[in-house]
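Minutes, project huddle
Topic: does the predicted pose make sense with MRU bound?
PN asked that the exact inputs be recorded in the minutes so nobody has to dig through chat later. Recorded below.
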Amino acid sequence: MKIEGKEYRTIWFDEKNQTVKIIDQTKLPHQFIIKDLKTVKDAINAIKVMEVRGAPLIGGTAAYGIVLAIMEKNDLNFIKKSAEELTQSRPTAINLKWAVDRMMKKLSGVNNNELLKVALDEAKEICEEDVKFCENIGLNGLKIIEEIYNKKKDKVNILTHCNAGWLATINWGTATSPIYHAHKKGIPVHVWVDETRPRNQGANLTSYELNEEKIPNTIIADNTGGILMQRGEVDMCIVGTDRTLSTGDVCNKIGTYLKALAAKDNNVPFYVALPSSTIDWNIENFKDIPIEERNSEELSHMEGLDESNKVKKVRIYPKKSKTMNLAFDVTPAKYVTGLITEKGICEASKKGLKKLFK
Ligand code: MRU
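Predicted holo structure (tokens), as shared on screen:
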């Protein structure tokens, strides 16, 4: 997708310099900085501090992390240790483990002198596949937006939470892909963007990328969605997910659950968009999903531009106050209208998912 009119992906391999390039998302929206990842430690750190974030992009970065490990030291023990560290760099998004496992499976039995080429091809393939899947999610989700538009004959208002946009994937996004496709087709859409405290991925990233694609959007405080739904100002919600269970339960950015409850109470369709790499076929009970708890400073401090346009971080809470920063919650399947996947739209249930993914 575009930034200042130029097409970008969120991650790519720089053949000339033999490094991995990322857009440093901790600097957005105030600074656009492309950063080099040169070692596997760089990749692990980028995931941990959220220079890259969003389930599919974390997966892509982990895949390239294995490539960087091989470039550093073509030694099986080092590669295995790196794979473990990459898997543990963030706990909730299943794409991370999925990508590392896929890379390690591909590398098993490969001769040392071919490891790098095989790893690089597979990391590129993981990213290409994600682009294709996200594009298909868009084409499938477009049908829902089109249907609402054909009935309403007026602008379709869509609410989204966090950033499940192209910045969270390699391109297109999951939740935003149907929106981009609708916009390209000339359907008038407007997006309510949940600010998404504490890290403000909605305000800093979703609104930013929608602006760059010229899609009308309005940032709202996280607690505003309920009243907008009561007023009939939300036609549908679309969110992403970090881990979807085979039962149809959906783990996503903290606050998603409350939005789904409000949507249910107001008969607003609540859709979740995901590539199949986000499905966890092993866990059945949502209480078994590891929920990341992040640094309390993400709550107690905020970053922005000061009067001289310099980025500044300030404390906003009393020094003595305790904080708690759970990064994700789970929305039970009963609140999800449907799952929009690369293979089609299905009911959020075992039966629904099995029909699409045999
Ligand atoms: O903590 P983040 O910014 O990595 O969380 C991102 C989300 O919650 C997204 O909704 C999810 O990863 C889906 S991305 C297509």
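Observations noted during the meeting:
- The mean pLDDT is 98.
- The longest helix spans residues 115-152.
No decisions taken; revisit at the next huddle.
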